[in-house]
Amino acid sequence: MRGKKVLASVALATAGVLGTAGQAAAVQWGPITSTLGSSNGTYFNEGSIYARTNINYKDNRPGGAPVYHQTWYQYYVTTCGANGCVSKYTLGVTRQTSRTSSGSWAYGWTHYNLDSSSDKARGLQEICQDEAYTRDPCSDAKAYPSFTY
Questions:
Q1: pLDDT for 100-120, tens place per residue?
Q2: What pLDDT does residue 24 have?
Q3: Angle of CA points 72, 78, 84, to nearest 5°
Q4: Are 34 and 127 spatial neighbours (Cβ–Cβ below 8 Å)?
Q5: How far is C-alpha 13 from the geometric centre of its chain's CA atoms?
Q6: From the CB of residue 72, how many other CB atoms can be counted at a distance below 10 Å?
Q7: 143 with 32: CB under 8 angstroms?
Q8: Which end of the chain is least crowded, N or C, by CB within 10 Å?
């Protein structure tokens, strides 16, 4: 019986590996914890079309101004000019989860198109508080998961 259990485990593990062929493994990030809120999750290549962030997040001061998780989707590109070439991450595009003012964990996700002129994606992760009529404060703590595609 023990041999059958091991064989079944290997078969399931192989099926899982084959099911994700052509994609980068999910990169775990976090936890990010601040007075605003907390978050953690994964960052990965979604079908060779998007960079995606799966997020668990919560408000560390429930009942006040709501918090959200924000990802800056950045891509490593090389730009060449008269003075040579410079390689760096782009400033990026932001995507945000819905707001929560609950102290219980919420789940959310965001994604953004992969850049065809790059082969590296990075997702700057931060937790922010939604403030009216002013710039939203975000956590000093950040995560920078990345993958190559």
A1: 999 999 999 999 999 999 999
A2: 59
A3: 140
A4: yes
A5: 25
A6: 19
A7: yes
A8: N
Q: For residues 26 and 42, is the Cβ–Cβ distance under 8 A?
A: yes
Joined together, the tokens standing for residue 59 give 């408000």
Query: Hey, what are 122's tokens?
Result: 């990075």
Q: Report, as an integer, the average pLDDT of 36-40.
A: 97
Helices (H), the chain: 2-19
Q: Do residues 82 and 69 make contact, with C-beta atoms less than 8 angstroms apart?
A: no
Q: Left, alpha or beta for 91 (phi > 0: left; psi -120 to 50: alpha)?
A: alpha
Amino acid of residue 48? S
Q: Tell me the CB-side half-sphere exposure of residue 13, using CA atoms within 13 A.
A: 6
Give exposure, 75-93, as e/b (b: 16+ Cβ within 10 Å).
bbeeeeeeeeeeeebbebe
Q: List the domain boundaries for the chain.
A: 24-148
Q: Is the dihedral of CA 145, 138, 127, 96 positive or negative?
A: negative
Q: Fold for 24-148, please state it.
A: Immunoglobulin-like (2.60.40)
